[in-house]
Design goal:
alpha+beta; Phosphatase 2c, domain 1; Heat Shock Protein 90; 6-stranded antiparallel β-sheet; about 45% helix; disordered N terminus; kinase activity; hydrolase
Length: about 675
């Protein structure tokens, strides 16, 4: 970053940290003072109320006890008047002291004029709840202006002779609370003033290093990453200054690393272009053989490599290699390997000898620990003989079209460059295999067979590769490669690609038939298969009866079929099920290791289903309609699958592919009345 880069103007802050912290402190302390004051006043009031209630209740009990003996005399007022007068004069805060007999006549009162009169108690008195324990007949009452206690005057035998009343005004309680509030306010005001003063001193001391930090950050913002902050402070500001110095150093290192990454990205893009130029961009066809490969790298540049080429003598050479190293290193070794093969492929007739030479030359340039596994084969297209040798590479897989079987060819060679000094010669040898018409060969790198499922516990494996190859042997090499890659993606189920994945297919087509009728039939079936592969929707089913349950959901997933009215979809599902069941039962004899492919094709003419299988041929074109009027036919319950197929479909055709596969074509008219068809 250039230090001369123009930076935006830095405006002064609208609110300083000192003012902000002072305001926050003042708000917090003030709020705390108010809350504490409110709580203190509330507790004081509650305590005073409890004290007043206890006092009134005690005075009322004592007055009632004294009044009990006075009520036994002929003139109780002579005793009670002096007592009530003395009590009210000694406690002037009392609002009312009186004794009333059970007839409601005042017998004791400080004012002698009230004696003998009908007692008149203060208005708006209501009983109130209290924490004070009350005896029988005792009542605590209150009004907006008074607190009052009432105690019964009891005869010695328990009879109530009257009641004693003592009241005190609420203003007495308010005066006590007000006095307490003043004292609390003075104390809390002193605390508030002290807190503000201490905060001011603390903030002033604390903010001294901020100016130093601000200037340092401004320098970093302007691109100066070398000048360090010097701040001798034992608080977190000192740690912050140290952190800023570390950050500027790391930022400078990150800038250097970013430049280096950009350089590496440029080199990797260049390497990717080199790799793309090295890999074949098309297939190779000659004398009935088709060779085609596919490659997908785990990183931007991978270490896998494949190639196919014509040799000077007319034979075909092809190779698959896996460099122990990915990225740029793998690409560079792959480039060396490609150049070396191009230089020596016409010099050596023996694949083994070529591998020995490659080991010698690569060993001169590769670092110890680097190695390359490689398969190299030379194919004679006239005889179909393939001579090959393998330097620690994956086993060769061959599908035999006549027997519908899979063969694996393993070798004992060590990788190129693994052990220097020519040791590899003793581990290599040339081997031969002959490819007949209808046979198909698959070579690959370990990124295919060692690909894990999402659980990371099971690999894709050689058996699954063989199954896919056998199921697709009648297809083109391109379709075989695409189907293998699709099955691999399904196996990984969205997991990341951990290694490069390379495939190479060598297929020998079956010889053309001279008969004009057979030729016309092959042209027709080839047209069906081509159209299905180009525009059809397909599903691969294994030769297991339980696999047939997948047919109905697959049909429902096709929008055109899902919209059929009436019983159309049910009838189609039954017919297709019966056709596939014949293949599973008669063609594959319930062998779950084999598979077949079913297409739905919505072409320019009537739509149709096409089934491609490699099972045993069975007679289906000599069908005669069953007589369902015959009771024995109805009781039989089996053998009516072809009747269902022919009743639903408008045309049923059979044929053979160019590799002697079985083709079944089921044509139907979507415009017919399916309800009438169902009724028939």
């Amino acid at each position: 970053m250039s230090s001369s880069t123009k930076q935006p103007a830095i405006t002064a802050p609208k609110l300083g940290i000192r003012a902000l912290m002072m305001g926050v402190t003042l708000a917090l302390v003030t709020g705390s003072v108010l809350v504490v004051g409110w709580l203190q006043e509330r507790h004081t009031r509650e305590a005073l109320v409890s004290e007043v209630e206890a006092r009134l209740l005690l005075e009322a009990r004592n007055l009632a006890l004294t009044s009990a003996s006075a009520f036994m005399s002929e003139f109780p007022e002579l005793t009670l008047h002096p007592i009530t007068k003395e009590l009210q004069s000694s406690q002037p805060e009392l609002h009312l002291v009186t004794v009333v007999d059970r007839s409601g006549i005042t017998q004791g009162h400080a004012d002698s004029r009230e004696i003998g009169q009908k007692a008149s108690l203060p208005p708006e008195l209501e009983p109130q709840s209290s924490s004070q324990p009350l005896k029988a007949g005792e009542v605590l009452m209150s009004s907006p202006t008074l607190f009052m206690a009432k105690a019964p005057v009891l005869h010695i035998q328990g009879e109530t002779m009257g009641h004693a009343y003592i009241a005190i005004p609420r203003s007495y309680l308010d005066d006590k609370v007000s006095a307490s509030r003043k004292q609390l306010f003075l104390a809390l005001s002193a605390v508030l003033a002290l807190a503000v003063l201490m905060t001011l001193i603390f903030v002033t001391r604390l903010l001294r290093p901020v100016a130093v930090l601000r200037k340092g950050l401004e320098r970093i913002g302007q691109g100066d990453l070398e000048t360090k902050l010097v701040l001798k402070d034992k608080t977190e500001f000192g740690m912050l200054a140290s952190t800023i110095n570390t950050m500027s150093s790391e930022l400078q290192a990150a800038q250097d690393e970013m430049v280096e990454k950009e350089r590496m990205a440029h080199e990797l893009n260049l390497a990717r272009e080199i790799q793309s130029s090295l890999l074949p961009d098309s297939n190779l066809e000659t004398k009935g053989f088709v060779i085609q490969g596919a490659h997908e790298a785990a990183q931007e540049v991978g270490g896998d490599y494949y190639d196919m080429f014509e040799l000077a003598d007319g034979r075909i050479g092809f190779m698959v290699a896996d460099v122990a190293g990915k990225g740029l290193v793998g690409c560079l070794i792959m480039s060396m390997l490609s150049a070396l093969v191009g230089s020596f492929r016409d010099t050596y007739d023996s694949p083994m000898e070529l591998l020995v030479k490659l080991d010698e030359r690569l060993g001169e340039n590769m670092k110890p620990g680097s190695f390359v596994t490689m398969f190299y084969g030379i194919l004679d297209p006239d005889s179909g003989e393939l001579v090959f040798s393998s330097a620690g590479h994956s086993p060769l897989i061959v599908y035999r079209g006549t027997s519908h079987t899979i063969e694996h060819y393993e070798t004992q060679g060590i990788p190129l460059g693994a052990v220097r000094g020519g040791v590899i010669r003793s581990t290599l040898k040339d081997e031969a295999v002959t490819l007949m018409p209808g046979d198909c060969l698959l070579q690959y790198t370990d990124g295919i067979n060692e690909s894990f499922d999402p659980s990371g516990e099971e690999q894709f494996g050689f058996d699954r590769m063989g199954e896919v190859l056998a199921a697709q042997a009648g297809a083109t090499p391109k379709q075989i490669l695409e189907n293998m890659q699709e099955r691999l993606r399904d196996w990984q189920r969205g997991g990341s690609r951990l290694d490069d994945e390379t495939l190479l297919v060598v297929q020998r087509r079956r010889a053309a038939v001279d008969s004009s009728s057979n030729s016309r039939e092959q042209v027709q079936t080839a047209k069906w298969l081509h159209e299905a592969q180009e525009i059809g929707q397909s599903i691969v089913l294994k030769g297991n009866p339980t696999e047939l349950d997948r047919i109905r959901p697959w049909l429902e997933s096709i929008e055109f079929l899902a919209n059929l009215e009436g019983a159309g979809l049910q009838l189609l599902s039954s017919a297709v099920y019966e056709a596939c069941a014949n293949i599973v039962e008669h063609g594959y004899q319930n062998d779950a290791t084999k598979s077949f492919q079913l297409w739905w094709v919505q072409g320019s003419e009537n739509p149709y289903f096409l089934i491609l299988d490699q099972g045993l041929a069975y007679s289906a074109d000599n069908w005669k309609e069953s007589n369902f009027e015959d009771r024995d036919v109805r009781l039989r319950g089996r053998g009516i699958g072809l009747d269902i197929i022919h009743r639903v479909m408008t045309d049923v055709q059979f044929g053979a592919g160019e590799n002697h596969e079985n083709l079944t074509r089921l044509v139907f008219n979507p415009d017919i009345d399916w309800n009438l068809k169902h009724a028939s």
